[in-house]
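Researcher: Please generate the 3D structure of the following complex. Treat every line as part of one assembly.
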Amino acid sequence: MLRGMTVEAMHIANGIVNGPVSGAFAVISLVALGFCVLRSRADLDDRLAPMAGLVAAFIFAVQMLNFQVLPGVSGHLLGGTLAVILVGPWVGALCVATVLIVQCLLFADGGLTALGLNIFNMAILGTAVAYLLVAALLRVLPKTASGVATTAFLASVAGVVVASQGFVLQYWLGGTTELSLGAIAATMAGVHTLIGIGEGLIAATTVATVARVRPDLVYALRRFRRPAVTARPVGASA
Amino acid sequence: MRRRTFVIAGLIVAFLLAGIVSNFAASSPDGLDSAALRGCTTNAEGRITGGTCMAQKEQEHQLGGGPLAGYGIKGIDNPYLSTGLSGVLGVAVTFAVGGGIFWLVRRRRPVA
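Model: Done. Output below.
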C-alpha cells in the first residue's frame, strides 16, 4: 500500500471491501444516479446547468483542502449539503458523483472497484440525509442567509456521519479482514463528527455568501418559500 | 451581480482554492484512511508492516500510474507547482464534464 505525500481524499481504496459487495453497490449507485438524472430534468434549465457545473467544480476544489481534526488525522468536505442547498437534491447528488468519478479516473483517488461504494456513501446516502434535514429545518428556520447557514451546518454534520456509517455497513457486508464492527462504527462516527463540523463551517460560509449576493440562486430558498407566496390563488390571473 | 459574472467569480475562487490554498492543506491521513490503518503499524513510506487493520488487503489503484495520479503532475518536480496545476486542471475538467452533462440533459425551453 502506497500513500503519497500529497493530498488524499476520504475515499475507499481498492481491496478494503470485497468484489461482490463492491459490485452490488456499483449497480445500486448506477440505478440511483439514473433516477437522479430523470428527476433532475425538472430542475435543470438554462440557468441551473452552469450553476450546477460550478457547484461540482467548487466541491472538487474544496475536497483538496484537508483540515486537521485530530493529531495525525485530517478530513475534508464531502460537499453533499452544499450541493443540495444550492442546486437541489437530484442535481446535487449528480454534482458529488461527478467529482468522485473525476477524482477516481484522473487522480487515482478512491479505488476504481470501490467507485460504487464511494458514490453510494457520499453522493447518495449522505446527500439524501442532508436534503431531508435541509427540507425539515427550512420549514422552521427563517429563510435568510443566517437561517440557511444554520441549516447547512446541521445538515453537514448529519450527512457526513451517516455517510461514514454507510462505509461501516459496506464493511460489515464485505470487509476483507475480521475486525470488531462496533469499534469501527464508533471510530468512524467519532472522527466524522469532527469532520462534519469542519464541513458544516465551510458549507455555512459558502451558502450564506451566495444567499447574500444572489439569494435567487439558492435552490433551498426558492424551493421552501413562505406559505403566503404559495397560498396565492393560482388560477386568478389565467 | 449578473448570473454569468457570478459563475465566473465562483470559478475563480475554485481555481484559487485548488491551485494555491491546496498546498497548505493538512497532509495527515483522513478520517477513513486513519480508521482503516488502526491496528496496523506502518513504516515511513506508509506501507503496512504488521498488525490487523481494515486496510491490510488494500490494493493499488488501477489507474495509479496516470499523469495526474495522487494530485500531482507527472514530470513536474516542484511540489507546489505540481499540486497547484493538477488542482486547476481538476477544477477545469470537473466544470467541463459536470457543466457539459447538465447542459445536455437540461430541460429546453418550450418552442413557443
